[in-house]
């Protein structure tokens, strides 16, 4: 198989890996590691054939995939850890950061449309926040809250390992329903309240993605009373 390589399209090993998973339309929770590894190494080899510098990160990821592939070929005892588990967790987190990065790129492109003015007349371009129904907060504030939640999430949560990684208990659609249900009882809830009963890393990622999606659909409004304060969710009128 021949590979057409455009390095400027990928911003790191996870970007390339995520691209391969999406282009092959495979389940991120059940990655066909042998097929993906072969394609990934094909890209890395193509870069080397072009006499281009391959960063250590890309080589390290290729080595990691080969290690996972070798472990998948070995017989494993019932209940043992799936070798793909850590990789899946990292990919889920990368998916969130990628989504936020795309929002910031949209903001940057919109700001390019404005001509500079004297300092005293410069106005902050809040078009992206308006588009996402953000009031008094920015994408950076939301990202900061997400990072804090991940930092404090329960690391010792029990795991049940099987031969195949089971799909997460909550999908983005499920989380959107949870948020709508809570907002049906209360007019205003903080983001942290959503995690009162479940503080797992995967649940935090799913909720964060659902908040972004609901905001883009203008079903949800995000407000913040003061800088670095609690972020609240309000059902859009």
From TrEMBL:
GO biological process annotation, one example: cell division
Transmembrane segments: none
Keyword Nucleotide-binding: no
Pfam families: SMC_ScpA
UniProt entry keywords in alphabetical sequence: Cell cycle, Cell division, Chromosome partition, Cytoplasm
InterPro entries: ScpA, ScpA-like_C
GO CC terms in record: cytoplasm
PANTHER family for the chain: SEGREGATION AND CONDENSATION PROTEIN A
Binding partners and assembly: Component of a cohesin-like complex composed of ScpA, ScpB and the Smc homodimer, in which ScpA and ScpB bind to the head domain of Smc. The presence of the three proteins is required for the association of the complex with DNA.
Job of this protein: Participates in chromosomal partition during cell division. May act via the formation of a condensin-like complex containing Smc and ScpB that pull DNA away from mid-cell into both cell halves.
Protein name: Segregation and condensation protein A
Organism: Dethiosulfatibacter aminovorans DSM 17477
Gene (name only): scpA
